[in-house]
Amino acid sequence: MIKLVALDLDGTFYAGRILGVPESAWAAIEQGQKAGLKFAVCTGRPQGGHGLQYAQRLQPDGPHVFNDGASICDAGGRSLHAEPVPHLKEIIAIARKYRLPFDLMGAKGGRYYEDALMPPELLTHIETTGVTARSALVEEIEETLVRLWFVVPDLSLWETVKPDLEALTEIDLAEYLNPREAIVGVIKKGVNKLYGLRWLAHYYGLSLEEVAMIGDSHNDLEAIRDAGLGIAMGNAVDEIIAVADHVTGHVREDGFAQAIAHVLALNGQT
Predict the structure, then answer these.
(1) What separation in angstroms does the CA of 9 have from each of 3, 113, 115, 128, 154?
(2) How high is the pLDDT of residue 27?
(3) CA distance 207 to 203
(4) Which of 3, 74, 199, 223 has its CA 20 to 30 A from that of 209?
(5) Which residues pair with 216 in a beta bridge?
(6) 49-90 residue pLDDT tens
(7) pLDDT (average), residues 108-125
(8) Spatial CA neighbour of 63 closest among 50, 85, 36, 82
(9) Contact predicate 115/33, CB 8 Å
């Protein structure tokens, strides 16, 4: 029986700037809450902003996962668990050496960049997530830093930078490449949404078999694969669909509500 539903946000619960969160999704959450389900955000988004507002409505008395598992907080934003970025001094030195813009995430909801190298995508991402950023030297930041994003404006430059980062064996890199640039996430090795899912299960005294994960993107793969019930959105990438136990509709076509209906049906609660 599924007792906890963890959910990705973008492309799963949040349907984009125009649609936002469909009303059908909120209605499904309310139905699930009445049936006794617990809910938890499990997102790659930075901690805070709109994601934390969703978390407060989803489960005001429980923990939620941000930064792909590197930071876990309660619905008020209080840090419950954090995994600091290893080798941060060395990583920042690499960024400064190659003059790479970067975006740093903190365990208390802080978000930072260095003034002269503000990532050009940052303003758009701030609008989407609602998590604002401020300029600061890394050496002056007091909160635990859990994730870093590089913006490498040239793919050939990324091929030069990548070996320097790969030499730091305690980190994992998430690469998002397009013809113009590389956007690269840096996180502690082994920390991902599945890590967050296991933390949530332990918190609630559950096994992973009692946890469902709903998602659509590459960073959901391990969590969907190993959860008791893995649900892929209809708009999910092929790799997610391949490992999911169930595929629901598109996020823009009430897919999330269909996912919750499937959970309740399996629990015999329809």
Answers:
(1) 19, 24, 29, 11, 29
(2) 98
(3) 10
(4) 74
(5) none
(6) 999 999 999 999 999 999 999 999 999 999 999 999 999 999
(7) 79
(8) 82
(9) no
pLDDT value for 128: 85
Strands (E), the chain: 4-7, 38-41, 63-66, 71-74, 79-82, 102-106, 111-113, 134-135, 145-152, 171-177, 182-188, 211-215, 229-232, 246-247
H/E run at residue 241: helix 238-243
Q: What is the dihedral of CA 4, 10, 16, 21, to 10 degrees?
A: 10
Handedness of CA 27, 29, 31, 34 (dihedral sign): negative
Contact 161, 94 (CB under 8 A): yes
In this prediction, residue 151 carries a pLDDT of: 84
Q: pTM of the prediction?
A: 0.95
Q: How far is CA 117 from its chain centroid? A: 24
Residue with more model confidence, 36 or 152: 36
- What was the pLDDT predicted at 119? 67
Average pLDDT in the chain: 94
Cα separation of 105 and 190, whole Å? 18
Question: Is pLDDT of 150 > 90?
Answer: no
> Which residue is associated with the tokens 């635990």?
144
Kindly list the distances between the CA atom of residue 57 and the CA atoms of 88, 171, 237, 259, 266, in Å, as whole numbers in the listed order: 34, 33, 28, 18, 24
